[in-house]
Structures are given as structure tokens and as C-alpha cells.
Design goal:
By secondary structure, this protein is α+β, with helices and mostly antiparallel strands. Among the domains are: about 15-55 and about 330-370, Helix Hairpins; about 65-120 and about 170-325, atp-gated p2x4 ion channel fold, CATH 2.60.490. Helices cover about 25% and strands about 30% of the residues. It has 9 helices and 16 strands. Strands 1, 5, 6, 7, 8, 9, 13, 14, 15 and 16 form a 10-stranded mixed sheet that branches. Strands 2, 10, 11 and 12 form a 4-stranded antiparallel sheet that branches. A hairpin with a 7-residue loop joins strand 8 and strand 9 (about 160-170). Helix 2 runs antiparallel to helix 7 and helix 7 (about 335-360) crosses helix 8 (about 365-370).
Length: about 450
């Protein structure tokens, strides 16, 4: 790069570019520009302001509390338990009613277990043995029920047996339920009370109707027309979650109860209503040996001699998770101005795109490009350019005669015949007269 080029580059850094408005009589570009404007305007009005409500300040820090109660009774008559009436204290765990609770629908009972020595259950790999040395005394049986005593117990002439253990005996039998014990649980009712608060706007509400009628909650049931009676029939909740009650009651499952609060605080508080959604959270379609939901618990007693014993219960049932989400919005000038400014920026982007089409993509782009871009110099710079031009003209060499030829200071005027007149010199171009001899 030469010195002149560097100088030109340095001076171009101080150029200022300003917009020049050119009215282009092009129907295609004009139609494109109007379509872009209309699209951006509809996007702002319909999507940004009407649907997304971006003119509002949003609060998503929802504060929530959930209280649950289950009511119902069931009657069973089995060979193991005999006649028995089940109420809330028997089939609801935990009893205090949290946002996660469990309703027992099936039960396998191992009664009258006492601590002592017995054989490990068959089918547990770490509890199988061929000789006493396979059962190391003091070691616990992995996935088993107690501590090994060091003896291998075999039945009859069998070469393989199980380790003797110190445990709650007899150990739990390996059995699988074939029919739900509490079939009547389908008619149980669930009361879900939810309190919410949006701290940014100091707005609070509950999903229970504010009324002085004490019998309201005793007689009402939830429906799409009665959102403020949160008393649900257990069978209906399972059905709304897309599951069959008898199927899920046999081996258990997990049901999600979702409460959504979407509040527009620019409207009346009565327009802020809860919305309920139900789904099954455990994947019922997955083939797994541990499908369903179950856990174990025990009830302890003492006999007349003061010896402790217990009834071990393997409970199958439905776990309910109450999940609360929500947001609240209220008009605010700050997000409104920000979104309007974003819309104006999009309008400018549309005009920029049309400029690119006009000066680069259409057939007459070169013509429009010449009209749009124009270089303008200031008055002082224009005077400097003219001065430089005059100096260059003065430095150009004048026309001189060839060497050895003297130049007349005053050129002679031409005679009427077109020849120069000179009194001292004869005419050089005298016509020659010739005589023709015959």
C-alpha cells in the first residue's frame, strides 16, 4: 500500500454517512415492504401483546401450601386376616396429609414374626449354599433378611440348601398378588386444599370456595363447572390420568395431580382460577420386574410374657404427588416500552432487507444503487480541490517551437487570399505559367 492509499484510508475514517431518501417506483419491492410491515405489526399485536401479554411484569416465584385428606371405608374377609374393616388410619400413609401421600390398595401380610433362627428364603443368590463354609458367620445376606450363623440347612437328601440366619422369623414368603385387596378404594374421596401467594404483587388465593355454608364441602364434588370444590373421587382421578383402577390397584403406581395458576391481575381476582391436570408418572408400558409401587411396614406387639412380635406388611397402592405451578402478570410500563422498541427495530430490519433487494437483487439494481449512494464534499474541501487543479494546470509545460526555429512574437495577418503578407519577401507560391509548343 502506497503513501497515498494510506492517506486516503486514514481520511475515510472521518467520513460521515447519512441516510438519503429515494422513492423507488418498484411495485415488487414496495409490495414486499408492505407485507413485511404488516407481518411485523400482526406479530406484535397478536403474539406479543394479546397471547404472550408481554406488556406485563411477570412473577413466577409462587409460594404454595398443600393440605390433603382421604376419606372412605372398606371391608375385607380373607383367610389370613379374617373379617376386617379398613378406615383412613389403616390405608393412608402418612396420616397427616402432605402434598405426597399413599393409599393402600393391596396387602401381603406375614403375621406373628419373632426374632430368632430360621432358614433364609429360597431364591436369594447370596443365601444359597452347599456346605457350612459357604455361610460365613456374622455376614449379612445381600438382598436377604438376616445375618448368617455359619450353618447350611438342606432339606432331605438335597445337595443344595440355604444358610441359617438370625432374623425376624418366619421370613417373608415370595408371593405376588393376584387380586387387589381393597377393591372398594375406587370410591374413596380425596380433599386437596391449596393456598398460593405471589409475593411481588402481594396477591393470595385458595382453591376452596369462600362460603359460610358448613355443608358445602360435605355435599359437593369437583367438576369443570365447580372448580372451587377440590374433592375428587379416587377412581375418577385414576381414570383422568389415563389408567385403569383395577390394574393400578393390583401392583400400585404413581399419579400426578397438577394444579396450575395462571393469573392476569389486570382483571378481577375472581378471574384467577386453578386448572387441574392428571397423569400417570410411572411408566406403565415399561416391562420391568419392579413395576408398580410398593413398600413394607410393620406393626409391633408384645405377648403376655413381654416378648415382642410383629406383623410385616407389604403394601401395594397408589402414590399421589400434588404438584403446584403458576405465574401472575400485571401491566408495567417498562416491558411495554421494551417490546414496542423491539417492534420498531424489526420495522427497521424490514426496511434494511428491502434495501438489499432493491440495490443488489432486482434487474435495475445498478441504477437504484447509483441513485441511493452519492458522495458530497463540503465547501472548504471543494475549494481545496479546485485550488489543487489550478496549480496542476500552471505546472503543465507551454507549447514551444522546434529547436533552431525562431518564433515570431507577432504573427502576421493572413491576406485575403489566405496567404501571409510579407513586404520583404516575395510570394513563395507564384503561379507558374508554361507555354505549350506545337
Amino acid at each position: 500500500m502506497g503513501q497515498a492509499a494510506w492517506k486516503g484510508f486514514a481520511l475515510s475514517l472521518f467520513d460521515y454517512k447519512t441516510a438519503k431518501f429515494v422513492v423507488a417506483k418498484s411495485k415488487k419491492v414496495g409490495l414486499l415492504y408492505r407485507v413485511l410491515q404488516l407481518s411485523i405489526l400482526l406479530y406484535l399485536l397478536i403474539w406479543v401483546f394479546l397471547i404472550k401479554k408481554s406488556y406485563q411484569d411477570i412473577d413466577t416465584s409462587l409460594q404454595s401450601a398443600v393440605v390433603t385428606k382421604v376419606k372412605g371405608v372398606a371391608y375385607t374377609n380373607t383367610t389370613m386376616l379374617g373379617e376386617r374393616l379398613w378406615d383412613v388410619a389403616d390405608f393412608v400413609i402418612p396420616s397427616q396429609g402432605e402434598n405426597v401421600f399413599f393409599v393402600v390398595t393391596n396387602l401381603i401380610v406375614t403375621p406373628n414374626q419373632r426374632q430368632g433362627i430360621c432358614a433364609e428364603r429360597e431364591g436369594i443368590p447370596d443365601g444359597e449354599c452347599f456346605k457350612d463354609s459357604d455361610c460365613h458367620a456374622g455376614e449379612s445376606v445381600v438382598a436377604g433378611h438376616g445375618l448368617k450363623t455359619g450353618r447350611c440347612l438342606r432339606v432331605g437328601n438335597s445337595t443344595q440348601g440355604t444358610c441359617e440366619i438370625f432374623a425376624w422369623c418366619p421370613v417373608e414368603t415370595m408371593s405376588s398378588p393376584t387380586d387387589p385387596l381393597l377393591k372398594d378404594a375406587e370410591g374413596f374421596t380425596i380433599f386437596i386444599k391449596n393456598f398460593i401467594r405471589f409475593p411481588k404483587f402481594n396477591f393470595s388465593k385458595a382453591n376452596v370456595l369462600e362460603t359460610s355454608n358448613k355443608n358445602f364441602l360435605k355435599t359437593c364434588h369437583f367438576s369443570s363447572k365447580n372448580l372451587y370444590c377440590p374433592i375428587f373421587r379416587l377412581g375418577s382421578v385414576v381414570r383422568w390420568a389415563g389408567a385403569d383402577f383395577q390394574d393400578i390397584a393390583l401392583k400400585g403406581g404413581v399419579i400426578g395431580i397438577h394444579i396450575e395458576w395462571d393469573c392476569d391481575l389486570d382483571k378481577a381476582p375472581s378471574k384467577c382460577n386453578p386448572h387441574y391436570y392428571f397423569n400417570r408418572l410411572d411408566n406403565k408400558h415399561t416391562q420391568s420386574i419392579s413395576s408398580g409401587y410398593n413398600f413394607r411396614f410393620a406393626r409391633y406387639y408384645r405377648d403376655d410374657n413381654g416378648v415382642e412380635f410383629r406383623d410385616l406388611m407389604k403394601a401395594y397402592g397408589i402414590r399421589f404427588d400434588v404438584i403446584v405451578n403458576g405465574k401472575a402478570g400485571k401491566f408495567s410500563i417498562i416491558p411495554t416500552v421494551i417490546n414496542i422498541g423491539s417492534g420498531l427495530a424489526l420495522m427497521g430490519a424490514g426496511a434494511f432487507f428491502c434495501d438489499l433487494v432493491l440495490i443488489y437483487l432486482i434487474r435495475k439494481s445498478e441504477f437504484y444503487r447509483d441513485k441511493k449512494f452519492e458522495k458530497v464534499r463540503g465547501q472548504e474541501e471543494e475549494a481545496n480541490v479546485e485550488l489543487e487543479a489550478n496549480e496542476i494546470e500552471q505546472e503543465l509545460p507551454e507549447d514551444k517551437p522546434p529547436e533552431g526555429v525562431q518564433q515570431n512574437e507577432h504573427p502576421q495577418e493572413l491576406a485575403p487570399s489566405g496567404r501571409k503578407q510579407n513586404s520583404n519577401c516575395p510570394e513563395l507560391f507564384e503561379p507558374v505559367r508554361s507555354t505549350l509548343l506545337v
